[in-house]
Amino acid sequence: MIGYLLRRLLGAIPLLLGILTIIFFVMQLAPGDPTTTLFSNPNVPPEVIEQMRENLGLNQPLHIQYWRWLTSFLVGDWGTSFGQNRPIADILPATLWNTLQLTLISLVIIFALGMLIGIVQAVRQYSIADNVLTFVALFFYSMPSFWLALMLILVFSMKAAEWGWPAWLQLPASQMTTVGAEYLPPGEQLVDRIKHLILPAIALGIGSAAGVARYMRGSMLEVIHQDFIRTARAKGLSERTVIFKHALRNALIPIITLLGLYLPFLLSGAVLVETIFAWPGMGRLIVDAIFQRDYPLVMATSFVIAAIVVLGNLLSDVLYAVVDPRIRND
Amino acid sequence: MRPRILSGGAVPRGAFAAAYSLTHPNHTLPTMPNARRWSRTLGRTLLLAALTAAGACRGDSGEKGAAAAGGADEGTPERGGTAILAEIAEMNKPLPFLYETGIDSDLIDIMFMPLLRGGWRDGRQVFMTADESPMALARRWEYVGPDSTGIRYHMRSDVKWSDGRPVTARDVVWTYDMVRDPKVASPRSDQVEQMDSVVAQDDSTVTFYFKRRYPDMLFHSGLPISPRHPFEGSDPAQIRTHPAMVDPSGRLPVSGAFRVGRWDRTQQVVLVPNPHFRPEPRLDQIVVRFIPEATTRLTELLRGAVDFMRPVPHDKIAEVRSRAPNVRFEREEKRFFDFIGYNPKVEPFGDRDVRLALGLAIDVPGILKGLNMQDYAVAAGGPYSPIFRELYDPRQQAPLRNDPARARQILESKGWQDADGDGVREKNGKPLRFTLLINAGNPRKEAVAQIVQQQWKQVGVDAKIQMLEFNTFWDRQMQKKFDAVVGNWGVGLSPDIVQLWGKDAPLNFVSYDNPRTFALFEQAQAQPTEQQALPYWRAAAAQIVADQPYTFLYYFDQVDGVSSRLRGMRIDTYGAFQNSWEWWIPRSQQGAQAAPRRDTTPAR
Prior knowledge:
The complex is a heterodimer.
Chain A: H1 2-29, H2 34-38, H3 46-56, H4 62-74, H5 88-123, H6 128-141, H7 145-162, H8 186-224, H9 227-234, H10 239-268, H11 271-276, H12 282-291, H13 295-323
Chain B: H1 25-28, H2 33-54, E1 82-87, H3 102-111, E2 117-121, E3 124-128, E4 138-144, E5 150-155, H4 169-180, E6 195-202, E7 205-210, H5 217-220, H6 243-246, E8 258-264, E9 268-273, E10 285-290, H7 294-302, E11 308-309, H8 317-323, E12 327-342, H9 352-360, H10 364-370, E13 377-379, H11 404-413, E14 426-427, E15 430-431, E16 433-439, H12 443-458, E17 462-468, H13 470-478, E18 484-490, H14 498-501, H15 515-526, H16 530-547, E19 550-563
Parallel strand pairs in B: 1-10, 16-17, 16-18
Antiparallel strand pairs in B: 2-3, 4-5, 5-7, 6-7, 8-9, 9-10, 11-19, 12-18, 12-19, 13-19, 14-15
Helix pairs in contact in B: 9-11, 15-16
């Protein structure tokens, strides 16, 4: 297994470099360059713009720019953001942490809620509960996250106070903290942060949870009609043991594939939801960087996402072997 | 003074913005340009549905109207409290000779004093001395030199930076040295083109020498002054990454009412009073939160989480007003206009009569009604907004009257006829068909393009709408690779319109070319004072109207939403961030702020 992991990791290096190289050159094809966005005043003399291009190193031929970026990147120098004028090494950790807070909670919602609903539906197939949950799941699955986000804001931020709901149900619509939260005691700060997390995490997670529920239901149904489940019941095991120990483990394989697919989302964030809730995460950072033609930041964020995609796939493959010993990665 | 041209988003203000800037997202949306535009589109589209779903409009209730702040009914000002402002984007480079974005422009209006403070009074731009505004460094000024090509400013000697050091004439000289230094690559460098030198006679006297006498000398010497001492010895090419720029809290001394107390990147900037500013600011703090999505900003205003947001979409104002009695709406009047620009190099737009016919086919009042903008916009006829009392002539710049019959007649007379009966006119076998370019993320322009497309169809013109990402749109427009565009400019407060219409002017993307107009421009710019230049500007405007390079559509207000607890804000044509030291919140509404009462720790 360790040999397999090493082989996969080594194989990822040229893949990542290839991805980044393509992104570097494709980015140059986009109309405009960073000076277009840095200088909004059209009366700025051309020599001033040329000076700025020189300051940013954009006056060099493209292959030189690429080589300089690559050599710096390989020794861990990710450069300085053109837009924010500060080292990318200072920007990324804070932004990644902001995104992780949001996406981890969403991921928990997605899988915990999705799997639970899927199991209930499978176990009680064709019951009223199954039908209602199917309807609800499809409802949320087909609802775009930005629409759900706006509806949540409408109900829990705007209308909650009007309708006289208790204070804990009146939730903020933007940002990570309330103004002045840094002066609150730690416990209250935590509560404040959680209150700010609830709506975006739900907006981000609920649609995908509905999707996971559909997968889980299908997968469980397939498993619980198999012979070994009948055998397990016949030998007198409790229904709980049958479902959670025997059926669930076998039904998890497609869900693990989904987990692998969702992992990149942990770090890439979600542009729409982050924008609507003014959550300063990776999604907004990436889109900002692209629109500002902030080349160093685009490269750095692309690397983070590409790396997590590769690692996510690798993790899925490893988890397959964990849940199903018949699968061997050697 | 001269705001910049934006695509209908937040308006950068400030005494030092270019007279005409562009419909560029980064002016409106500094750190997240296009994303913000599309998200705004999304938000605006969805807001109506969202609000409608929540409950029907309950009718109008008490609008305070334009420039309502500062009224006698506001009560006696009290000290304390935190004002929370929602801005579309993040602070970026809060230094007068470096800033590029709207939010920076707003913050610089609060943080840095110019020699003379700009303002807008009685339909014209004014420059205030220290006797008229505490935000002006100069007590008085006079023209000097045999041809009056210099301006000498006599500065107050009692003004201190927030770290306690005096503001002197050497700071003025250094500021302009930075603007001039090519290594700095200052976006304000066009302001020193006519400047020979800036000389400090002593600590409180500074003289600007210009190459010639011209009306904008006051404006060009009106850049807010930056502190020299934190940057002394730094490489000018690296000034954008100087520690005082990367983390201004405590490192960037200011002369204005508030300084940066804390900057939580991508979230908020907390401004605290400058302990040396007089009169002492009334608020304990101003927190500027960055909320890119218009719907969320509006929601936060309605629920009382923020005290100020802009722009409130015109079509939502009536509805929102009825839902939020604690919010007042104020106007930054007629600072923007929309138009259709034609590329004369493309057949048939080289013909002035065809452009006129296309304009006559458009029903502007109908568009305004359709967009619910009729209370906040007026039909436009020429290059001067109605805010210019001395330049706007409703007869000379009368909007085109919607007259499809005359439009048809003109097109027929020019040989554009629908011979094959397919509804599209043609001439020499070529149909009257072209592309109308718009940028993505501006729902107003999208709606306008669709309405205009339909109205043109009625007179046998077939326009295809093409929507492009902003940077691509901008590139196409500036490289003159388009047929027609739906464009949008902010209105500069200087009468000088050469940046838009001058020969080879950067923003003259419609290749406007009339020697008569250019001669009038030259005469206007050669006049020693603004007053003497007015007749030439008026004549030039009349010529532009006659030439119809654009179909001018309408001038419109930017509407700001302000919570009723935030008082003393002067909002008018000049902008919303003019008098931050006078803003106040009644003690009874200051709430249980967790923040310390007043942060007056000296700057590092």
